[in-house]
Automatic annotation (TrEMBL):
Matches recorded under InterPro entries: Carb_sulfotrans_8-10, Sulfotransferase
Underlying gene: Chst9_2
Name of protein: Carbohydrate sulfotransferase
Name of the top EC class for this enzyme: transferase
Record's subcellular location: Golgi apparatus membrane
Length: 165
């Protein structure tokens, strides 16, 4: 898109014609991560002052979707996948395979640009960690989290998510 704008310019600052022209001229890639994994990552990085995962989750639920941090806000409300037709949706845990495909499609040398990923190990670790942390939550918290992330769980194929069960 040819219009000059600062990197901080938000899409909402353009009119509809400009937005359509911009979105039509870019390859749009969306990186997604299962909601429970996003919460665990935020908790482990010390976001918030909660002493336990359960109390951290309660703080998130109490804050509501409108006041939620970008770190754990539902992806559907951040990325608008129903409005923006993304060319690629890349799932956390499959980065090496999917980024290799993206680089190849872009005509870039895959081997020299692709960092080493240990996707299998990351998937196993987060699967184990999710089960451990999920077991700390009350039934009510589990149900509330499933409701909090209901649109993400519908929009993306998080088939192994503990929140869908």
């Amino acid at each position: 898109y040819h219009r000059q704008h600062a990197p901080e310019t938000q899409l909402s600052e353009f009119n509809l014609t400009e937005i359509e022209a911009m979105l039509g001229s870019y390859t749009k890639v969306l990186f997604v991560r299962e909601p429970l994994q996003r919460l665990i990552s935020a908790f482990m990085q010390g976001m918030g002052s909660s002493p336990s995962f359960s109390s951290f989750v309660q703080d998130v639920l109490d804050s509501g979707q409108h006041n939620a941090s970008v770190t754990w806000k539902p992806l559907v409300s951040l990325c608008r996948p129903c409005l923006v037709q993304y060319d690629y949706v890349v799932m956390f845990g499959f980065l090496r395979q999917e980024l290799g495909h993206l680089l190849q499609r872009a005509g870039l040398p895959v081997d020299s640009l692709l960092p080493e990923f240990t996707d299998t190990q990351a998937r196993w670790t987060y699967s184990w960690l999710s089960e451990q942390m999920f077991s700390e939550l009350s039934l009510q918290q589990k149900q509330q989290l499933s409701h909090f992330y209901r649109w993400d769980l519908s929009a993306f194929p998080f088939s192994s998510s503990l929140l869908t069960g």
